[in-house]
Amino acid sequence: MRVLIADDHALFRDGLRSLMEAQGVDVVAEARNGREAVELARLHRPDVVLMDLTMPVLDGLAATRLISAALPEVKVVVLTASEEDADLFEAVKSGAEGFLPKDLEAAQFFALLEGVARGEPALTPALARKVLRELARPRPVREERGAGELTERERDVLQLLVAGVTSNRELAERLFVSENTVKYHLRNILDKLHLQNRAQVVAYALRHNLVRPPE
Prior knowledge:
With 215 residues, the chain is an alpha/beta fold. The protein has 2 domains: 2-135, Rossmann fold, CATH 3.40.50; 144-207, Arc Repressor Mutant, subunit A (Orthogonal Bundle), CATH 1.10.10.10. It has 10 helices and 6 strands, in the order βαβαβαβαβαβααααα. The chain has helices at 10-22, 34-44, 60-70, 85-93, 106-117, 125-136, 152-162, 168-175, 179-193, 198-207; strands at residues 2-6, 26-31, 48-51, 75-80, 98-101, 122-123. Strands 2-1-3-4-5-6 form a 6-stranded parallel sheet, with helices on both faces. Helix 1 links the parallel strand 1 and strand 2. Helix 4 (85-93) crosses helix 6 and helix 8 (168-175) packs across helix 9 (179-193).
């Protein structure tokens, strides 16, 4: 198996590379950020990319989407310290073949990695159950532009956008969540309202009285 490691922590990359090479895995390259991961995946065409989520220049989710679209034969497995369900669901939506916690036992890690080579998803049983529950969750009947589908949390994000809070960092601080979770909610809002950017979202929300107008 030929593997590309994408993580911005050099010590973690070195440790993972040593562990994998001791198991006979061929580590073809290492990337320090998402952009390097995309470039090196195009250059080396590995069987698997082990992708961290939080990296500079280009984050792991964006890199996963680019690799999955351009190189469908390359399997991306997210390897992360994140415990956010939103990151799990967004990684799967972005084309990842798996989502593994960094504190996984080595034996289970290699067993799941071997499964990826056979076309199986690399998910622990607990994470697989979460994905299945999310896929099985009944969807509300679509109203015009999907406004009726907005969750309470998405309406909280919408309220802050209308109030002038526009940066992912500030939204995350106000809502006490990670920036990746904010991005997940924002993407859902855009999808449900069939809009292209945040300015359109604010204008639509005010025009249709979806949230309280700013004081």
